[in-house]
Amino acid sequence: MISKLKVTSVTLRSSIYLSRKYCSSISSKIEVCDSNIKGNNLNVAELKENYKCLAESFNNVETNPYYIENGLRKVYPYYFRHTTSCKGRWIKKPLIDVYTQEFSLYPREEIEKRILTGVLRVNGEVVDLNYVLKNSDVITANVHRHELPVWACSMKVIFEDDDILVVDKPSSIPVHPCGLYRYNSAALILEYQEKRKDLHVTHRLDRLTSGVLIFAKSSEKSNEIHENLNLRNVEKEYFCRVEGEFPDGVIVCNKPLKKIYSKVGIALVDPLGKISITEFQKLSYNGKSSVVRCKPYTGRTHQIRAHLQYLGYPIVNDVLYNSYVFGPEKGKHGILHKDINQLLIDLVKEHSVNWWLGKLEENKVMDSEVDINIKKLISSTNCYSLDEKLLSDSYKKDSSKLTSEKNCYFCKNVFCDPKPSNMFMFLHAYKYKTNKWEYQTEIPAWASDDWNIM
Ligand SMILES: [Zn+2]
């Protein structure tokens, strides 16, 4: 246990390794030093206490971070220092602008407060509101962290040997720590619940996408799988359910996709984007929606979802791309009826963190048709039943672990549970194969020919 705060310097590293390509390391460097604290409106005693809890919580890595409530896996709030290196696109931009535009779901006033009080620092120092970022700057945020809930269902093991672990990832769980998910990511659930150490994430799936997820058990194996993915030696097959009757035959979309960095990250067809190729084939049509098999030949962010939107057949419950925010045609053929800046403003409004806060009363009382149908789906299949391990007493909510921090943005607001539509999407990674191996899952219930509750 760390009790002296003045010269404590600890480097801690999770035993889950993440690809450099997909995410910066989740290793966290904790350096606590009173000399960094420079006044302003800073409550030094309070920050010290935060640092103390932070250091203690990291020392106690065997602690169970989870509890189960309403069929959801929830994480007790905790103190956390998040460390990020200045990215190329941030150089010469004010810190406040970068965090407001790209990094955080909080309002600008909250970011201002975090900079002024030293919650957000550059190279360990408290900086002015007009601080401009430089190459090699390291930004740290010391926060009382709250995570969003995910389904409390198990990640079924599809295959395991000495080299790899392959699981069927449920919808709602991100692959690795990001945004408002850390312990509630597939990588850390395997580490903290299943006590599986030294796993390497080899590829990613969107948070709402379910299906095949391959972890390597060594860096050599991880590199080998990466190389196969980079050389496009891995054949990937996905299933999705889209709006309307998808055309017959094999349809190939080869429109380049550009990733737009914003609070709500999206990919849009753009001539200046990266080469992106997806092959689609309709498997069935039930009078309202079609099951489509998708084979992405490139691996761009949101590739299948963005290409389906462009073709005019968005995934039926894709809360991001199946939306009139993109215009009356929902972005078909890239027609937006507004400029990109207005689109991003409108997307942020629709996907604000307030969706999960108790502020929006209608969020609690309005159940959309999509949500009702997803509830029916969950009750009609066993894919999303509660993970039996989570029924034990150790996962019962312990109110004494619900720490509270008076200056924390989230502590000041009341959370309500996310709606099913924010936890589920009909896109499933069914099979990954090379000429040496092949891993596949069961076909989801919503992909059967006669499924017709949507
Ligand atoms: Zn809090």
Written overview of the protein:
The protein has 454 residues and is an alpha+beta fold. Helix content is 20%, strand content 23%. It contains nine helices and 20 strands. Strands 9, 10, 11, 12, 13, 14, 17, 18, 19 and 20 form a ten-stranded mixed beta sheet that branches. It has a three-stranded antiparallel beta sheet with strand order 3-4-8, with no helix packed on it. It starts with 7 loop residues before the first strand and ends in a 14-residue tail after the last strand. Mean pLDDT is 81; it is low at 1-44, 51-56 and 360-366. It binds zinc ion. The site of zinc ion has 7 residues, from loops.
Structural class: alpha+beta
User: How many individual helices?
Assistant: 9
Number of DSSP E strands:
20
The whole-angstrom Rg is 22 Å
Q: What is the share of helical residues?
A: 10-25%
Q: Which cofactors or ions or other ligands sit in this model?
A: zinc ion
N to C succession of SSEs: EEHEEEHHEEEEEHEEHEEEEEEHHHHEE
Largest sheet, strands/sense/barrel: 10 strands, mixed
Tell me, what's the shape?
globular
How is the topology of this model organized?
Blueprint: E1 8-12, E2 28-32, H1 44-59, E3 66-69, E4 72-75, E5 78-85, H2 95-103, H3 108-116, E6 120-122, E7 138-145, E8 150-151, E9 156-160, E10 164-169, H4 186-192, E11 200-201, E12 210-216, H5 219-230, E13 235-243, E14 250-253, E15 257-260, E16 266-269, E17 278-285, E18 289-296, H6 303-311, H7 340-351, H8 361-365, H9 369-380, E19 427-433, E20 438-440
Parallel strand pairs: 12-19
Antiparallel strand pairs: 1-2, 3-4, 4-8, 5-7, 6-7, 9-10, 10-12, 11-12, 13-18, 13-19, 14-17, 15-16, 17-18, 19-20
The structure holds zinc ion (ZN).
Keywords: Isomerase, RNA-binding
GO molecular function: pseudouridine synthase activity; RNA binding
Domain Pseudouridine synthase RsuA/RluA-like: 163-309
